[in-house]
Amino acid sequence: MSAPARVRLVRPSPLTWLAIIGGASTIAFSAGFLFSAYPSLPWLLPVHFKLNGYPNGWQFKTYARVFVPVFIQLALVATLGAVAALLLSRVHGVHDEQSADEQAASVAAEGVALIAFIWVAFQGYATFALARMWQRERAGLGRGFLYYEIAGI
């Protein structure tokens, strides 16, 4: 039986680290906000609305339901983070940080990390928009939601 191959990661760029730190901060801030806002949310959350914006469907307030935006953020980070880690991983051969292969891997991982940060930030806005919508019990996530959608696309 042969020894297991050693896996090494190409060094992430400073912009990749900035996206990682920004994403982690956004998730922590979203979770903290929802935890502090939870007591002020109505016990029945409006989840479906008529065309005029008034609710016609509700669900009971639970931590699992309120924290859905944070769960989405974590799923985005897990999925896209795994892609970035796979791009940066190297199992065999000589490792040269100046090689075209490793530079391409670093740039690709940087792009994936930035996409992850954009969508985590989008869900961060959704966190506040949902809480505001639940509190006022009217449909609509605000103009900011549309702007984040466009920026994400």
Tell me what the structure shows.
With 153 residues, the protein is mainly α. Helices cover 63% and strands 10% of the residues. It is built from 5 helices and 4 strands, in the order E-H-E-E-H-H-E-H-H. The protein has helices spanning 14-37, 63-66, 68-88, 100-136, 143-152, and strands spanning 8-9, 44-49, 55-60, 89-90. The strands form 2 sheets. Strands 1-4 form a two-stranded antiparallel ribbon. Strands 2-3 form a two-stranded antiparallel ribbon. Helix 1 runs antiparallel to helix 3 (68-88), helix 1 (14-37) runs parallel beside helix 4 and helix 4 runs antiparallel to helix 5 (143-152). The chain is elongated. The N and C termini lie far apart (49 Å). The model has no long low-confidence stretch (mean pLDDT 88).
Q: Can you lay out the helices and strands and say which pair or pack?
A:
Elements: E1 8-9, H1 14-37, E2 44-49, E3 55-60, H2 63-66, H3 68-88, E4 89-90, H4 100-136, H5 143-152
Antiparallel strand pairs: 1-4, 2-3
- The DSSP helix count reads 5
Strand order of the largest sheet: 1-4
Average pLDDT level: 88
Enumerate the spans where pLDDT stays under 50 for 5 or more consecutive residues. none
What does the overall shape look like? elongated
Determine the structural class based on helices, strands and strand pairing: mainly alpha
Written as H for each helix and E for each strand, in order along the chain, the element string is: EHEEHHEHH
- What is the distance, rounded to the nearest whole angstrom, between the alpha carbons of the first and last residues? 49 Å
